[in-house]
Design brief:
Blueprint (H helix, E strand, L loop, with lengths): L1 H9 L5 H29 L4 E6 L7 H16 L4 E6 L7 H10 L4 E3 L24 H9 L1 H9 L5 E11 L1 E4 L14 E4 L3 H9 L3 E4 L5 H6 L5 E4 L1 H6 L8 E4 L4 E9 H6 L2 H33 L4 E4 L2 H22 L1 H16 L1
Parallel strand pairs: 1-2, 1-3, 6-7, 6-8, 9-11
Antiparallel strand pairs: 3-10, 4-10, 5-8, 5-9
Helix pairs in contact: 3-11, 7-12, 12-13
Length: 355
């Protein structure tokens, strides 16, 4: 390599007519070569490892597609030395079991709703305030900003490294009883919810009978009518095949769910600096791909679900009535997690909306 560079330096200057092309060629190929060398160098520093990534959703859900992208990127960036095997559909356990395994070091990666992290740090409930975000842009800005980075950083004390927040989307309600077009339609429904205090209290405020349940149990409970319905983003409703056991889908978009990508701190601490760079870089790129996939699927999923379910929109006026009903819940949990954090979120959203 050294002799090759030296010979190039000894060559006579290019003639004027070819000078621009020569400079551009060397610039482009030099940059590409540099990137390739950097990737090769990083990969050379990696040890042979096979890591495990378990999650509750289907492999064809955007989260599963993002997980596959992450796995592929880790392999590519490490020159094949690091591998990530995927375990979708809760085959290694429920979300709480996966979180316990991450903390214990027997599982390397998982992803789950922010609400499920409230047991470790109640401040994560701030992401789950009902009707908090107007759109994906706001949700992503908060999820990628300093507030989220600070919260993810606090997980390290409990054996977890947060690699960013992926996207599950805005939640909607399905049930087997009736369409929901106003708050009173929710009254009395037995609905599965994430085992998070703010989810439970939100549905109580709306008049439902909330039933905390792990995701893997939901289909069976819907099929046997042990519960009337559940809430999830449309991509989850479609890939989990809930249309087979639910008649009505109401587009309430009442809660947004971010999905932190979590890594065992024990695994993270065992990695070299180069291996950590590979993992974080792959996580960032896969997050962008996962979000893009989810947004693309959301509209298409609604149209496909219309063929299998009765789908209804909810008017802005009725959504505002729902918002008013859950306001005491927001106020209560804002006080519980700390007025300082709640104000930071409110200020950040106000800033985003002003721009």
């Amino acid at each position: 390599m050294h002799r090759r560079i030296q010979r190039r330096a000894e060559r006579p200057p290019a003639r004027e007519g070819n000078m621009t092309r020569g400079i551009l060629g060397r610039g482009v190929f030099g940059s590409l070569t540099g990137l390739a060398l950097l990737a090769t160098a990083a990969g050379a520093q990696a040890q042979e490892r096979t890591l495990k990534f378990a999650f509750s959703l289907a492999k064809d859900h955007p989260i599963g597609i993002g997980a596959q992208k992450f796995s592929d990127l880790v392999v590519a960036k490490s020159g094949g030395k690091l591998k990530v095997n995927l375990f979708p559909n809760a085959v290694l356990g429920s979300d709480p079991q996966n979180l316990s395994a991450i903390r214990g070091g027997t599982l390397d990666f998982t992803t789950m709703a922010t609400g499920l992290l409230a047991g470790m740090n109640k401040e994560f409930m701030v992401f789950d305030f009902p009707f908090l975000f107007r759109d994906f842009k706001e949700a992503y800005a908060l999820s990628d900003g300093p507030i989220a980075r600070n919260l993810l950083g606090k997980l390290e004390d409990q054996g977890v490294v947060g690699l960013g927040i992926w996207d599950l989307g805005f939640r909607n309600i399905t049930n087997s009883k009736r369409p929901i077009s106003r708050p009173d339609d929710i009254a009395g429904l037995k609905l599965r919810v994430i085992a998070s205090p703010i989810y439970i209290e939100t549905f109580k405020a709306l008049g439902a009978n909330p039933v905390p349940m792990t995701f893997g149990e939901v289909y069976g409970a819907l099929e046997t009518r042990a519960i009337d319905g559940q809430d999830n983003p449309v991509a989850v409703i479609e890939t989990a095949k809930f249309a087979e056991v639910q008649k009505y889908l109401s587009l309430t978009r009442h809660l947004y769910t971010g999905m932190p990508l979590l890594m065992s701190k024990k695994t993270w601490d065992s990695l070299s600096a180069d291996e950590r760079k590979i993992i974080q870089s792959a996580a960032d790129e896969a997050k962008a791909e996962e979000r893009k996939t989810l947004q693309a699927q959301e509209t298409e999923a609604v149209e496909r679900l219309r063929k299998a379910m009765q789908v209804n929109e909810v008017s802005a006026a009725e959504l505002e009535r729902m918002r008013e009903k859950v306001k005491p819940v927001v106020d209560r949990f804002a006080s519980e997690i700390g007025e300082g954090l709640s104000k930071q979120v409110s200020d950040e959203l106000a800033r985003l909306r002003a721009n």
